[in-house]
Design a protein that fits this description.
By secondary structure, the chain is of the alpha/beta class. It folds into 2 domains: 9-37 and 260-351, Aspartate Aminotransferase, domain 1, CATH 3.90.1150.10; 41-258, Aspartate Aminotransferase, domain 2 (3-Layer(aba) Sandwich), CATH 3.40.640.10. The protein is 40% helix and 16% strand. Strands 2-8-7-6-5-3-4 form a 7-stranded mixed β-sheet, sandwiched between helices. It has a 4-stranded antiparallel β-sheet with strand order 9-10-13-12, covered by helices on one side. A two-stranded parallel ribbon has the order 1-11. Helix 4 packs parallel to helix 11 (246-257) and helix 5 runs parallel beside helix 6 (112-120). It is globular, with a radius of gyration of 21 Å. It binds pyridoxal-5'-phosphate. Pyridoxal-5'-phosphate binds next to helix 5.
Length: 354
């Protein structure tokens, strides 16, 4: 029987594309920008030490917040923890966005900005990355004159890999006196560029971070929102009392205590990113300069068929034909063995083209 429930129109009209997220286990997962090496062994030890009494208790956040604030070089009152990076983005809608108010994004980008905007019934103003995947700074400055409630920029951007440097970010912040500027730094450890040190200078600036990528905690869901004390206090008002689970806290503390593992992972990714781009170039496949743990490649008209063939071999890449152009593919940088397996598979399919 069909229920006739009073569902909000924004929910019925939602249409953001969602990636296939099930049945990936056991495959070569180069489609979600995970850390395919896995988390630090220290994380597993810390999780094994959780007692049943602790698990039965509602989590307390002060000690973990102090520890993770040290990791980000901020004060505890400048950090809020959230249930994954996705959730760290949602809080800006709860805080700043009424139905009908506008947000500004630049596409192609991480789809969650649009996803939440649709759920909250926001108007979405869209800029486009340029032909070489450059961010349109002048267009952003012009659009900010219309005072959107929130501007979201992923830096580096997913899927293009584009990195905005400090001068461009400063230009944008100066143009955004009446707009909350969220710099989504999900991949900052790979780019080495962060605006976290600027939070006390720009009260409109917020930084979103995640422990899913470099720390390899995607399954545990831990994200962070960073901003100056006064601005973050506004966001705090929109948060539930227990947004984060204890396992995620314990795991993150162990992960940040093991800097050597993180550093090793970042260095390996950077090295493999350069190597893999050079190998694709030899096959006449264009890639775009990336500051993340992934590469955007253009396989042209043969791209969709290639993805389907690799998929049949259990190799998952992310087709971006729908939001860039047919043939664009985002490739997560996995381990050296994984990247060699992928290259071999691409080479054999590519040379077999008619
Ligand atoms: C730019 C960007 N921001 C945020 C996230 C969210 O990550 P998570 O929800 O796993 O923390 C991702 C994940 O792919 C991302 O690419």
């Amino acid at each position: 029987m069909k229920a006739s429930l009073p569902v909000r129109r924004a929910i019925l009209e939602r249409r953001t594309y969602e990636a296939p997220a099930e049945g990936r286990s056991g495959k070569l997962r180069l489609d979600f920008n995970e850390n395919t090496t896995g988390c630090s062994p220290a994380v597993r030890r810390a999780l094994a030490n959780l007692t049943s009494k602790k698990i039965a208790m509602y989590p307390e956040y002060q000690a973990s917040t102090r520890c993770l604030a040290r990791f980000f070089h901020v004060r505890p009152e400048e950090l809020l923890l959230a249930n994954g990076g996705d959730d760290a983005l949602r809080v800006f809608f709860d805080t700043f966005v009424d139905a009908g108010s506008s947000i500004l994004i630049c596409e192609p980008t991480f789809p969650m900005y649009r996803y939440y905007a649709e759920i909250y019934g926001a108007r979405i103003s869209v800029l486009r990355y340029g032909k070489q995947m450059e961010f349109p700074v002048d267009d952003a400055v012009a659009a900010l004159r219309r005072k959107p409630r929130v501007l979201f920029i992923a830096n580096p951007n997913n899927p293009t890999g584009t990195l905005l440097g400090h001068p461009e970010l400063r230009t944008i912040l100066h143009a955004a006196a009446r707009t909350a500027v969220v710099i989504d730094e999900a991949y900052a450890e790979f780019s080495g560029v962060s605006v976290v040190p600027w939070i006390r200078k720009y009260p409109q600036l917020f930084v979103a971070r995640t422990f899913s990528k470099v720390a390899g905690l995607a399954a545990l869901r831990l994200g962070a929102v960073i901003g100056c004390r006064e601005s973050l206090a506004l966001v705090r008002r929109a948060m539930p009392p227990f947004p984060v689970n204890l396992a995620a806290l314990v795991a993150a503390e162990a992960a940040v205590a093991d800097r050597a593992t993180m550093r090793r992972h970042v260095n390996e990714v950077k090295h493999l990113r350069v190597w893999f781009a050079a190998e694709l170039k030899k096959l006449n496949v264009k890639t775009y300069s990336s500051a993340g743990n992934f590469l955007l490649a253009n396989f042209g008209t043969g791209g969709p068929a290639l993805i389907r063939k690799l998929d049949k071999q259990g190799i998952l890449l992310r087709d971006r034909s729908h939001d860039i152009a047919p043939g664009f593919v985002r490739i997560t940088i996995g381990t050296s063995a994984e990247m060699r397996r992928l290259l071999k598979a691409i080479r054999s399919q590519w040379s077999a083209r008619t």
